[in-house]
Amino acid sequence: MPDRTLLEAFATPSDQPFVIEHISDEFTSVCPMTGHPDFASVVLRYQPAAPGISASKRSGKGRANGAPAGGCVELKSLKMYYQSFRNEGIYYEAVTNTIRDDLARMLMPVWLQIVTHWRGRGGIRSVIRAEHGKVPEQWKTL
Amino acid sequence: MPDRTLLEAFATPSDQPFVIEHISDEFTSVCPMTGHPDFASVVLRYQPAAPGISASKRSGKGRANGAPAGGCVELKSLKMYYQSFRNEGIYYEAVTNTIRDDLARMLMPVWLQIVTHWRGRGGIRSVIRAEHGKVPEQWKTL
Amino acid sequence: MPDRTLLEAFATPSDQPFVIEHISDEFTSVCPMTGHPDFASVVLRYQPAAPGISASKRSGKGRANGAPAGGCVELKSLKMYYQSFRNEGIYYEAVTNTIRDDLARMLMPVWLQIVTHWRGRGGIRSVIRAEHGKVPEQWKTL
Amino acid sequence: MPDRTLLEAFATPSDQPFVIEHISDEFTSVCPMTGHPDFASVVLRYQPAAPGISASKRSGKGRANGAPAGGCVELKSLKMYYQSFRNEGIYYEAVTNTIRDDLARMLMPVWLQIVTHWRGRGGIRSVIRAEHGKVPEQWKTL
Amino acid sequence: MPDRTLLEAFATPSDQPFVIEHISDEFTSVCPMTGHPDFASVVLRYQPAAPGISASKRSGKGRANGAPAGGCVELKSLKMYYQSFRNEGIYYEAVTNTIRDDLARMLMPVWLQIVTHWRGRGGIRSVIRAEHGKVPEQWKTL
Amino acid sequence: MPDRTLLEAFATPSDQPFVIEHISDEFTSVCPMTGHPDFASVVLRYQPAAPGISASKRSGKGRANGAPAGGCVELKSLKMYYQSFRNEGIYYEAVTNTIRDDLARMLMPVWLQIVTHWRGRGGIRSVIRAEHGKVPEQWKTL
Amino acid sequence: MPDRTLLEAFATPSDQPFVIEHISDEFTSVCPMTGHPDFASVVLRYQPAAPGISASKRSGKGRANGAPAGGCVELKSLKMYYQSFRNEGIYYEAVTNTIRDDLARMLMPVWLQIVTHWRGRGGIRSVIRAEHGKVPEQWKTL
Amino acid sequence: MPDRTLLEAFATPSDQPFVIEHISDEFTSVCPMTGHPDFASVVLRYQPAAPGISASKRSGKGRANGAPAGGCVELKSLKMYYQSFRNEGIYYEAVTNTIRDDLARMLMPVWLQIVTHWRGRGGIRSVIRAEHGKVPEQWKTL
Amino acid sequence: MPDRTLLEAFATPSDQPFVIEHISDEFTSVCPMTGHPDFASVVLRYQPAAPGISASKRSGKGRANGAPAGGCVELKSLKMYYQSFRNEGIYYEAVTNTIRDDLARMLMPVWLQIVTHWRGRGGIRSVIRAEHGKVPEQWKTL
Amino acid sequence: MPDRTLLEAFATPSDQPFVIEHISDEFTSVCPMTGHPDFASVVLRYQPAAPGISASKRSGKGRANGAPAGGCVELKSLKMYYQSFRNEGIYYEAVTNTIRDDLARMLMPVWLQIVTHWRGRGGIRSVIRAEHGKVPEQWKTL
């Protein structure tokens, strides 16, 4: 079951803007209609919030799971979070929007983009792109 | 015979904008002049209408085939729709424009793009691009 | 319906051994179980019979369709023959063995090999290899 | 000899804007200086004129060869036109500009672009890009 | 849990020798030591037993699960069988040998080869090759 | 230990703007959490300061290590600098920001961009992009 | 018109065996049936005759065209010879066998192989392989 | 020694704007520090001056070497010019700027771009981009 | 310092012959002459000893480090062993032969092959292949 | 001028057979007929002589240049040797045979193979393969 409490963050290590991209080629979930597994590459791109801003804005969030909030997602926690979809029956679009929402809530980034590339079924491959905040134009088709 | 009544839709699952791309590498139709088969990859890209807007605007459409209208095309129905071109004698341009029109009427998307890549004949490969609504600049050459 | 009477041959143009390879990337038939189309690349390789031998051995064959027999398959007739499978419900193995049998009967080659590469279904791609006569070792895995 | 009377057109089949791309990997002409053959891939891209506009504007053109004018170039006639350069002694730039001029005169498109990719000589490959009308920015480097 | 009773076979459709290859790019199991998922492409190659031989030799086998035995594995059953490893904690070598054993028992082929290509962990990718019967030399490194 | 005193520069050899790109496929450091080595390709892109401007503005910088400052980084010194990270326990983001800062301080460029492509861990590859000055839009996603 | 008198040779420069391979990606001839151009890559491979042997055996050959015979084909003459097929109406098999015969007669090599890769027509690509002398097994499928 | 007097030009053959690109994969010079050879691909892109403008503006230039000036560089002369760097001890940046300056002086183009891709040394590959005039944005990163 | 005591093994899990291949793309050591780092992909291939044979033959080996001997190398221990070369000054050939010797002593395999692919220096890439036991012919050049 | 006295060797570091492969992508010489530069990738493969054998057999060789003989070629000396061809007017075949002879004399290997891949001229690429000793079959076409 997708479990966003697995996600952990650490404070943005620089006050200058930069962009982080994590590409997982090993995402799998289950089609809720057929019960067959789906396979995807999941691309996460975001510009983390500046250190100070993220700290102050987050303090009152009252995050349910008590995990420390922060500007950058910790890599191993991201991997565990992705693995929590393994046996979930869930459509392409819901996977993409769920990941976008969970990470945006956690990271409060300047902008964030999720792109899922699905191996496809019945001869049709699919790509779903979801955004949070103002994603710069040049990233939108990548 | 191309049959748009095969298409089915489901409601947009998010009220945040996102882009859907479906790539079929298994499209085939027949050249009306020579009777030889044509083969193409068909790329569909669109930004679905927001959930509320699409629901209200569509209610009075009186769609002839009674199929439920919606914001996102259902994948298996898309595959069956593409298969309905299999033995149709129809030119490249007509295939591309027909698919564009049928899907735009069904989905009422913010924008939609159809790109057909044909294996070609006589040493000439072809790509046809058709649009509905205001396709963002950066998608136009992809 | 697969129609071997479409095949035509011409006499081997040289009395020195040589090998002919024709690769069609545009083969399609229909799955007899699901009714969905299948797509394949079909590779035909063979060493044609020597001119004299093939002429004399063939004269008494009494071929049903009266088409001229010969050592090399005519390319356009091969294309038409492949197209005759377009709407046939037939399994991978049967396609491969049928083509092997039809061409071997027609061409009486020293050896002949058919390799079909299928785009696959449900995440599984398939390759079927069938042979006639003594195919040299080094061709068997290509 | 390059022969633009070979070109034929048909009326634009849609009143919505779309873009057509034809790629020929089998173009050859002759270097006028050395007499050696040159080989190129020729890319033609254009947005055809709208159906009504092209009909009315063209009626008074008095085209010398009497061929029917139209919005879209017929594929087989394009192939024959390209073949008419086969034994012509002509430079890269002249090939590119000639094709641009002949097709622009014939099709009266909204815009048109010709890109020729030459295999090169003496270790230098070349690409020549010519335009007619206002080619959108994003196409210019493709 | 790997479940060989999911496998189904059908009679070899030809009495001439041929080779079947099925490639699944969507295999996943779980590392028994770390609990993390493993991902592999699984290649199955085999030469099915001749129709008559396989029928007679198999009749007295008393196969525990009562499933019909045969010369060729049915594709959808192979897919379901592979999916039964999804949540199994099992090492690379055991996966490879288990698949080899289950299919060899079922198909009684002339020869059979299983090659598993694993995406790897800690910067090390792995390939495991297992065989049944006398696999021809030229297949052994593919 | 990352050692910026290893970096050396030479005066910009032209007063016309140009862009320099150096790509090192052999960067390695150590993960501070696990102690395992990390591997990256590091891309440095920058537009050097004009010759005169960089000379005058730099004269009062009082650079600690006394090395000559300049507009362009000397290649061998860049290699030695990268090698100084070899046994350093340091995160992806810190590597990227450190290199950006050290080179920007040294070169005082019009703009500068560092992109690090990491081979990844646990099935997730990462790319980090950091900037100094006003990097032109078209470079930002490369 | 194919003109073997264009071919020139030079004496084998070494008395130790070696293998020469020339690959021309710019071969073109004309289909005798349709009049359309054909395009091919032509691969020539051979082991030249040893210097002494080829000299003595050739002296009494009385070659019709009086051109100097030798162990290795001169590259520019090979190019001119290939160009002489440019406007010839000739089938794939005849091209391959003609080149094989002309070069074998000229070079008297230990062995020689001609492989022609044709871009194809109607969706079928072809490869023709012809041999002279005893071509080692490992070259036969390349 | 780089010798710009080797360059020759011919008049722009069209009064419509077009872009010329020449790619040489065979550039070599010598590192002035180590004496080892450097290898590069050199890309030249430019929009030639319009025929009339270039003629009139150039007439009073008093070009030192007396060679005819023009809008387009002649290909063989470009090759000879590049070869004149073969044994020159010269840095990457100087090569790039020298070629830019020599060609810009000769061709007086609307704009011109030189991109040199160096095979690199010590594990670092380099790309240098120099410009003359107003190079359109979309070319700058190619 | 290369440390073979890091290697661990486990008993061969099958008494049928199979082949194991592990590919590490992240090997690095140091050139003893220049002090610069070297980078390699290391391929290990072997056929493990049969379970019974390896157990009995190994019992009297008196392995110095007391680690359990066995037929298959444990993956994580292999990774740690490779990492122990990180700061060792050692030539390509010595790396390859050392790994071969350490693993052969540990695993007592039927055969074993080590192939190291080095990124190279000064424009020369290198591949070193070492063997233990009778490596089958078809593996020798892979 | 090709200078074999630049070559240096070191003693074979192992008494077990292994194979060494060095690939240089930066070879250049000059065509003696046209004066234009030629570019090649040069592949050297060999099995070095066993340590003892090579030492004893070589002692009485009386090598003219006094350089130390040995079983393995030193990499930097190989690079300098290749560079000595830079301005030599010499044909493809002579380059290949000269390198083969110089290295075979120096290294006295069990076997040695030189493969030169030339970028080609006039649309024809070439590969020359020369051998010393008994090169195993499987290497001959690589």
Would you mind describing this structure in some detail?
Ten copies of one chain form a homodecamer. The first copy, chain A, is of the alpha+beta class and 142 residues long. Helices cover 23% and strands 35% of the residues of chain A. Chain A contains three helices and six strands; from the N terminus they run βββαβααββ. Chain A has helices spanning 51-58, 75-83, 92-107, and strands at residues 9-10, 18-30, 37-47, 72-73, 111-121, 124-133. Chain A has a four-stranded antiparallel sheet, with helices on one face. A two-stranded antiparallel ribbon of chain A has the order 1-4. The first copy, chain A, is globular and about 45 Å long. The first copy, chain A, starts with 8 loop residues before the first strand and ends in a 9-residue tail after the last strand. The interface between C and E is medium-sized, with 23 and 23 residues.
Short description:
With 142 residues, chain A is of the alpha+beta class.
Number of helices of chain A: 3
Largest beta sheet of chain A, briefly? 4 strands, antiparallel
Assembly state: homodecamer
General shape of chain A: globular
Measured distance between first and last alpha carbons of chain A: 29 Å
Order of helices and strands of chain A: EEEHEHHEE
Neighbour order of strands in the largest sheet of chain A = 2-3-5-6
Number of strands of chain A: 6
The greatest interface here is: C-E, 23 and 23 residues
Assign the structural class of chain A, choosing from mainly alpha, mainly beta, alpha/beta, alpha+beta, or little secondary structure.
Answer: alpha+beta
Average predicted local confidence, pLDDT of chain A = 88
| Helical residues, percent of chain A | 10-25%
Radius of gyration of chain A: 15 Å
